[in-house]
Design a protein that fits this description.
288 residues; alpha+beta; 7-stranded mixed β-sheet; two-stranded antiparallel sheet; 17% strand
Length: 288
């Protein structure tokens, strides 16, 4: 299934005022992601960026979490405030219809540019968040604090519906190799997310690599293949924050969306994971 992501950019990359919760939901479920331009007021983003920078001045950790923001802001800021818009809250209600959902986490990170940034994180390889986080379906809002995708590292995503991505991932709900010491790596075939493997399956043009400005955001989930995008011209580093909301189940209601191309059903997987104790929150959050 080879495809060119540039041919669908006009469908998944729009200004905030061009989206409604319903249209954003349809696009998100069909392509696994969407870009919302001008979603966050710049004054609010500047305020949050300042708090994140202040937090990093007082920690040697790679990430800053919502609990850290609460500590450094005297309990006034968690990071979830950035998602308090009618569009984004409407999207969450539409995606998680029929199940309970809640705030999961806010994670800030700094990705190194080519010229390196002291103690900043290296660009991340292609991955699924559910390799490192719970399997329950999440809605993620990825928000950069400065322009990225040209002079600073951005994101690259393979824009496929989450059932299609899940099929490609080889995920069955059963461990496929010996248990990893941490995370959920044993549920996925080794090497499946290597760049060469992905390009052999979907083609070298399958990646969505949006150029982002402050106030823009990417909607995605824990079931989309993605990673950092950095090329030699990207000398500066990039700071971003990701806001996650999580549901009760591994799936969401796909009514009015394209059905899964999988021949095998994932029904019953949720019970399997509950029995296996795999639906607890991962204590280590290292991927974007």
């Amino acid at each position: 299934m080879r495809f060119d992501a540039k041919e669908i950019v006009h469908l998944i990359d729009k200004r905030a005022d061009e989206w409604t919760p319903a249209s954003l939901r349809r696009t998100f479920l069909e392509y696994g992601c969407a870009v919302v331009r001008g979603a966050i007021p710049t004054y609010q983003l500047d305020w949050m960026s300042e708090i994140v920078a202040r937090a990093y001045q007082q920690t040697n950790e790679v990430h800053v979490y919502d609990r850290d923001l609460m500590n450094f802001s005297n309990g006034t800021v968690s990071g979830f405030e950035l998602s308090n818009t009618d569009l984004l809250q409407g999207l969450l209600q539409a995606v998680f219809v029929g199940q309970n959902w809640r705030r999961e986490s806010v994670t800030a990170r700094r990705i190194q540019g080519v010229e390196l940034n002291h103690d900043w994180q290296q660009p991340l390889d292609l991955h699924l968040d559910c390799q490192f986080h719970p399997f329950q379906f999440t809605v993620n809002f990825w928000i950069p604090f400065q322009e990225c995708g040209v002079d600073a590292p951005g994101l690259q995503l393979v824009p496929l519906s989450y059932p299609s991505t899940r099929c490609y991932s080889g995920f069955t709900g059963q461990p496929l190799r010996p248990p990893a010491e941490k995370w959920h790596l044993e549920f996925f075939p080794e090497g499946r997310f290597e760049l060469s493997e992905v390009e052999a399956t979907f083609g070298p043009d399958c990646f969505l690599r949006p150029q982002m400005r402050p106030g823009d955001l990417i909607v995605s989930s824990n079931w989309i293949l993605h990673g950092s995008y950095r090329i030699p011209t990207m000398k500066a580093g990039r700071t971003s924050v990701e806001i996650r909301f999580i549901g009760e189940t591994i799936d969401v209601n796909l009514a009015a969306s394209h059905p899964s191309p999988c021949k095998k059903s994932n029904s019953g997987i949720m019970n399997l994971f509950q029995l296996a104790g795999r639906l607890v929150r991962s204590p280590i959050q290292s991927k974007e």
